[in-house]
């Protein structure tokens, strides 16, 4: 697939944050902004995103054409597109799986994260991928999924711009399908690729946590957790794996 028609492509040697730079160019939306070095990248809940040399940091600025409350579904669209692109580039689709709500795993470890941020009518979809190196596990939050990089996992070194050129058309195709077909097909496909489906997990919140069986996601992307009290619908949580399961 070639670069998606009507989508701008910006490559920077260095940026504070691709989220900031993409929003600054959002008059040209849709626009992808890639930075080879990112000095102030952030992940979920404002945590710093470590970016060793050779890794991938890019943001898509998009003006979605559907209802505002459906914007969060792009975390699943982006995850599926990222898995598509990684499978195409490596030729090893079995390496990759999906972790709710917005991570792509490789060999069961965290390879990539996706961050959605709305600013007015602009949706920013930030993606970070450990292409060449993974951050030390010691700098991550206790209990987090161990990181991995694509080079050590697949034996292939993929450049950031090559990654972008595979990801952008994959996302454009997934976005078109979302608008045309609705979320149901992607919901089903995401669940087929989800890690720990039907297995015990722990959902953590600011003041408490819940343990239960991961039973999938609903039509709005919320996680369904089967507990002794019944099915719990979780629109947001931090998910940790129960290694005993």
UniProtKB/TrEMBL annotation:
The lineage of its organism: Bacteria, Pseudomonadati, Pseudomonadota, Alphaproteobacteria, Rhodobacterales. It catalyses: biotin + L-lysyl-[protein] + ATP = N(6)-biotinyl-L-lysyl-[protein] + AMP + diphosphate + H(+). One of its GO terms (molecular function) is biotin--[biotin carboxyl-carrier protein] ligase activity. One of its GO terms (cellular component) is cytoplasm. Its EC number is 6.3.4.15. Keywords: Biotin, Ligase. This is biotin--[biotin carboxyl-carrier protein] ligase. Pfam families: BPL_C, BPL_LplA_LipB.
